[in-house]
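[stage:ingest] chain + small molecule (pyridoxal-5'-phosphate)
[stage:ingest] validated
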Amino acid sequence: MLTLNENFLHLQQNYLFADIAHRVSDFQQANPDVRLIRLGIGDVTQPLAPAVIAALHRAVDEQASAETFRGYGPEQGYLFLRQAIVEGDYASRGLDISPEEVFINDGAKSDTGNFTDILGRENTVLVTDPVYPVYVDSNTMSGRSITYAPCTEEGGFVPALPPADAPAPALIYLCYPNNPTGTTLTASQLQEWVDYALAHGSLLLYDSAYEAYISSPSVPHSIYELPGARRCAVEFRSFSKTAGFTGLRCGYTVVPHDIVVPSSGGTSVRLSDLWRRRQSTKFNGTPYIVQRAAESIYTPEGRAQVRATIAYYMENARIMRESLIRLGLHVYGGKDAPYLWVPAPQGMDSWTFFGHLLHEAHVVTTPGVGFGPSGEGFIRLTAFGHREDCLEAMERIGKWLACPSVPFQPAGEGKASSMGGI
Ligand code: PLP
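[stage:predict] done
[stage:export] tokens:
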């Protein structure tokens, strides 16, 4: 008899974005003349860099002739891209990663979700709270038990290591710069996790999809900057937010050869070999033209163009941070990440704050509680919008806060703070 993987029935219905969409569409139907400004979106808005467009055109033209046509490519990705990544993202920072350790994919979502295919279902999982939901859902689908490390305002949004007397989680997901809080960890804070993983035989699954947004010199760009990480950490990167590939789809995963896991049969298995085996069965590669497009980001002109777009988004983030702080709100993130994490005034919950901003300021945000219980009382703003919209949204929020009907006490001068650099 046909049965289901009933773990899927244990998934929390992801109401968050559907719920936001319903509330926004109800409001818009009742108020068709209002122009809403959407600061909740997690998608980019600026066009692809000219170097990327040129690389796409060249690669498309190659498909028109039998001499240069490309069919199936290597499942792990073309060497030209893996080499560009190794040189551009790792060797340039003095990090020793080989092209054989790099696996090209169709975006970080696929690999952060799929990687656990090669890991035992009995492995326990630790995620931070609030969290990018893919880690939770993909492990729920596999029936793994999940614990949460709360990242709170009082704790500076730094997840605490599990207590010494608690069983160590086998898999630990860390995402820095963080979605949704926009905060980062210092090298010494990250080193504690690397040391913990090495001491307990845990695997770190390090998602650095927003690495390109780091500007503070003290913030690590790669987990491999920390001694010992090559023996315990897999790193996921994405071209989505780095270079606007949310529609093109490309990213990569680094699985160092030094991660070796004992099997029940007594042999030692290199995780990268098992991942290659999995990918060569279930994945047939990222399109050639997309890999050529990704390669172009590593050329001097590609790099400069991509950096200019990131600077545009981060200027949005700066404008929003400084405006909100001036208005008397607390703001976290937005310094090394395109996300701002804003506590609701006067102890409002996330959905109430969201509702006020939608109905009275006509600005759409994302309620923080949708990312986990520790997100309650916050909203997330993204810096991916158009400049004029960010400016107007700040003006609208300012007017709303100034309304006599809004019971808002601005934070005192010294109280308004940003911990984006932590
Ligand atoms: N990881 C994090 C933390 C993200 O926020 C996202 C996308 O929003 C992804 C991974 C997925 O990115 P991709 O578009 O490469 O699948």
